[in-house]
Amino acid sequence: MQVEKTVFISYRRTDIFIARSVQKELQLHGYDAFLDYLTIDSGSFEQVILQEIAKRAHFLVILTPDALTRCPEPGDWLRREIEYAMQHKRNVVPLLFEGFNFRNVETDLTGEWLPLLRDYNGVEVPAVYFDEAIDRLRNRFLNKPLAMILHPTPASRTLPVTTQPPKPVQPPPPEPVLAEVHFEQGMKHYRNGRYIQAADCFTKALALNEQLVDGYYWRGHTYRLRADSRRAITDWQTAQKYQPPDRRADLIHSNICRLSGQFDEALQIITEAIQQYPADAELYRNKGAVLYDKKDYDGAIAAYDEAIRVNPEDAFACFNRGLARASKRDMAGAITDFTEAIRINPEDAAAYYNRGNAYRLKNEPDKARADYDKAIELNPQDAASYNNRALIYGQQGQTDKELSDYETALRLKPKDLLVRKNLEIAREQKHKRA
C-alpha cells in the first residue's frame, strides 16, 4: 500500500510561526503540506479548508497551552477542522508544544468528537529537540498508508472514507470566521508589543462576536499595559459573564483583584489554580505579575522561573522576568532576559524597547539607540521609543535628531507632559547654543 505525503496543518493564528516551521521542515522532505494563511477570503474560507482536509491523508494539529481554549465557542474553526478530519478518517496527529498537557484542557474538549483528540497518539515537540521530534513525526507517524490507521470513533457515528470533497454540514455564518481572523491578528500585534493596534483588532472581533471571551480578556491586557485600569477591569468583568468556571476564569478573577489592589486575594486565587493546573505557564506568569505589582521582585522572579521551567519558549515569561530584574537594578540580568525574549520572538518591539532602556541605564548609549531603532522599525506608533532615543541623541549632541524625535513622540502622544517638558528643555538648550 502506498504511503501518501499530503498533509494539512491546523493551528491557531497565534501559533503561525510554529506552524510555518513544521510546514517548512516537511516540505524539505518532499511533503505537500498545506497551511491556511490569512490570504483566503472569508467567502471561500470554508469551501477551501474543508476540501483541503478531505483530500489530504494526514492532519496535524498544533497544540500549545491555549490552543483549545476557544473550542467551546460557536463557530470556532480550529474545532471544526479537527472534527472534520476525525469524521473523514484522516491520520490525525497532535503536535504538543510548549508543555501542552491534555489534563489542563479537559473542559475545552466538548461535543461528541473533540474529546476523542486525546485518544490519538501525539508527538511532543520540545523546543530544544525540534528537528528530532519532526524526524520522529515523519518516520513513525506519517509513513503509514491511510488504510492502516486506527481511528477512535463515537459509538453513535461513523462516516465512510471518501476521496471526494464532502458536502459541508451546517456551515456557520461568516461573522465567527471574520471575528477569529481579527482576534488572531490582534494576538499577533499583542505578542509583538503593538498594544494600540492589538486593541483595535480585538474591538473589531468583539463587534462580530460579542461573546468572544478571549477578545475581552486580551483587550483588557492591552488597556492594563496602557495604564487604563478602568477599561481593563470592565473588559474582564464582561469576560466573566461568558466564561465557564475553569483556569481562564481564575485568571480573569485574579487580574480583576490585582488591578483593584487586592493582591492577597489575587495570589490566593492563582495559587489554588496552580495546584489544579501545575503545568500551566500562564498561571505562573500571572502569579509573577501580582508579586511584581506588590514590589516583591524576588518572588516575581521565582514565579517567572517556574513559568520558564514549564515552557522554556515562553517569551512573555522571559520578558516579564527581565522587567523584574530591571526593577532590582540588575541590568545585566534584565538584558539577558530581554535578549532571550527577542530570540523567541524577534518581532517583539517592547522587548527591544526595554532592552534599550537597560543598556541606557548601563551607560551603553550606542546599544541602547540600536534597540530603540529596532523598536521604532517594528512599531512606528510607540512614542516612548522616540522619547528615549531622543535622550540618547541629546547626550551625543545630535540636537536636530533629538528635537525631531521629541516632536514625533509628542505628535503620537500629545497629552504626555514628560515628552512636552523634554522638548521644551531641548529647544531652550539649542537656543542658548545658537
Question: What order do the helices and strands come in, and which of them pair?
Answer:
Layout: E1 6-10, H1 16-28, E2 32-35, H2 42-55, E3 58-63, H3 77-87, E4 91-96, E5 123-124, H4 130-141, H5 174-191, H6 195-208, H7 213-225, H8 229-242, H9 247-259, H10 263-276, H11 281-293, H12 297-310, H13 315-327, H14 331-344, H15 349-361, H16 365-378, H17 383-395, H18 399-412, H19 417-433
Helix pairs in contact: 5-6, 6-7, 7-8, 8-9, 9-10, 9-11, 10-11, 11-12, 11-13, 12-13, 13-14, 14-15, 15-16, 16-17, 17-18, 18-19
CATH class of the largest domain: Mainly Alpha
Topology, number of strands = 5
The average pLDDT score comes to: 87
CATH architecture grouping of the largest domain? Alpha Horseshoe
Bin the strand percentage.
5-15%
Assign the CATH topology of the largest domain. Serine Threonine Protein Phosphatase 5, Tetratricopeptide repeat
CATH superfamily grouping of the largest domain: Tetratricopeptide repeat domain
**What about the largest sheet?**
5 strands, parallel
Q: Would you tell me the structural class of the helices and strands?
A: mainly alpha
Q: Give the CA-CA distance, first to last residue.
A: 85 Å
Determine the number of helices (DSSP H or I, runs of at least 4 residues): 19
Element pattern in H and E: EHEHEHEEHHHHHHHHHHHHHHHH
Low-pLDDT residue intervals, each spanning 5 or more residues = 38-43, 157-164, 166-174
Q: How much helicity do the residues have?
A: 55-70%
**Overall 3D form:** globular
Summed up, the domain count is: 3
Rg calc: 24 Å
> What spatial order of strands do you see in the largest sheet?
2-1-3-4-5
